[in-house]
Design a protein that fits this description.
Shape: flat
Protein name: DUF523 domain-containing protein
Number of strands: 4
Strand content: 15-25%
Distance between the termini: 30 Å
Order of helices and strands: HEEEHE
Strand order of the largest sheet: 1-4
Pfam family, one: 2-thiour_desulf
Structural class: alpha+beta
Number of helices: 2
């Protein structure tokens, strides 16, 4: 959780409104994340960092939904 808090602090300090994070990561994933057992199982939810950013009104995207940004 410390890394997520540091990420949020940096994002706030420089005025970030949107973030692109790694899909399916237990830290950065958004929507579906690996369950942490290294078995390849996916569960619904957001990773720690993604969830904290979202809770603080920072939009989170992954490489799999960049089209939503028009990229």
């Amino acid at each position: 959780m410390e890394g997520a808090k540091k990420t949020l602090g940096i994002a706030k300090a420089i005025g970030i409104k949107k973030a692109i994070l790694k899909s399916k990561s237990p830290s950065c994933g958004c929507g579906l994340i690996y369950d942490g057992t290294f078995s390849g199982n996916l569960i619904r939810g957001n990773g720690l960092t993604a969830g904290l950013l979202i809770k603080n009104n920072i939009e989170v995207y992954t490489e799999s939904n960049l089209d939503m940004l028009g990229i």
